[in-house]
Amino acid sequence: MSSWEDGSLLEASTMNPITKGKITLDVWRAKWTTRSAIETRQQRRLADMLSYVRRQSRFYKQHYTDVPEGCTDLTQFPPVTKPMLMEHFDDVVTDTAITKAEIDTFVADESKIGHRFLDRYPVWTTSGTTGEPGIFVQDDTSLALLGVLPDRWVLDALLDIDTLRRLVKYNFRQAVIAITGGHFLGASAFALLQRESTFLENRIRLFSPTQPLDDLIKTLNRYQPALLMGYATVIVELARAQRDGYLDINPAFVSPASEPVSATQKRDIERAFDCEVREAYAATEFDPIAIECGHGNLHANADWVVVEPVDDNYQPVEPGEPSETVLITNLANRIQPLIRYDLGDSITMYDEHCPCGSAFPIIEVEGRQGDVFHFETTDGRDRPVFPLALSSVVEEVPGVRRTQLIRTAPSTLRVRLEVASGHDEANVWEQVRTDLKTFLEDQRITDITLEKATESPQRNPRSGKFRHVWSEQI
């Protein structure tokens, strides 16, 4: 799970302005249309995309050999997974100038963060938490939608007098809390904004959740953002700091994302900052999948993405029932097409209409989430450590394929590791242990015992869900 943490004003600078204008107009015209009209838009784009990939993608042409030409019933098309697409990367993409070897070289170079591959395509990567890092090349339509789709749902929250006053007072500055140090969606799109948007060049700043909370609070107090976006667990802690008087900012709008956030937590955030709070559900593979409306419901952007809640056999689940995983079909990106892509999140889709008046489907999401660990620092203070920050330390170690971190005692962390082939497990563990120790010491947390689990990462035997960071201490 990820967020529109790169902001809602990203420009697809290479796109013809007239084409971008048409996309923007279509997005806004669809907001209050009927469910039938939304489905018509979806089906038209789906038929066009399926026809296109069968002509232009060598992988999909072979993958759909047994599916009749002209078929648009998605249930007849075999799903795809991230490992499958990465293995056949050169055959999946529809621009033969793009190769996996050259993309790998590009993303290995951190100086290229925020630049376009071949001076044309933004490239975003995933961390590899679900088993293998993903590399996803974007096209101009994807970028245009990344900017327009969030605005369709949140612009109403920004148009009241008090909110506009705050936006102007704090010069429209955006604070984005996202993992740095790679071509991840937040960090890479943030850098792209700085390079390509004159308006946002000095109005958007990235804050890493890996830094100590005290340091984050100090920098936010100096920065004074008008908009605050990023990891939900971090924003929950910032709301607590605001209530306790350590944080003193006055944002006009807050958007927790990348992790599930409860209704109670959203109310707490809203009270702490006295502003509108809207959740976002997005992924590197499609951003944004859904945005929260003013009535507290997440609406899937079904005119541009097909969302299929399915069980562990990829069979549809009934409305109101949580899925084992979700398949998404990106109706925008033709450079690296995603058709019935297994995203891995559990979602619930509902049939009923929202009181806001929109006919777009309502979904609930149970995505990647973990416990916030609270440790005591060397000076006796309570220090929260966020799940994504902690797991990212491990995931960035070369050779780590999958990980789980469990707190088994107040000062003990148990680390489950799955190591990629070709890497020595003992060496990988030693680097993980060193990096975790350094990370915790930077937060003034010492005397933590780090244990390597004998078992590999595994799903919960009851729910089948794959958790990443949690506490088992009594």
Automatic annotation (TrEMBL):
Residues 452-474 are annotated as: Disordered. It comes from Haladaptatus litoreus. The keyword Transferase does not apply. Keywords: Ligase. One of its GO terms (molecular function) is ligase activity. SUPFAM superfamilies: Acetyl-CoA synthetase-like. This is Phenylacetate-coenzyme A ligase PaaK, adenylate-forming domain family. The keyword Chloroplast does not apply. Transmembrane segments: none annotated. InterPro entries: ANL_N_sf (IPR042099), CapK_Type1_Caps_Biosynth (IPR053158).
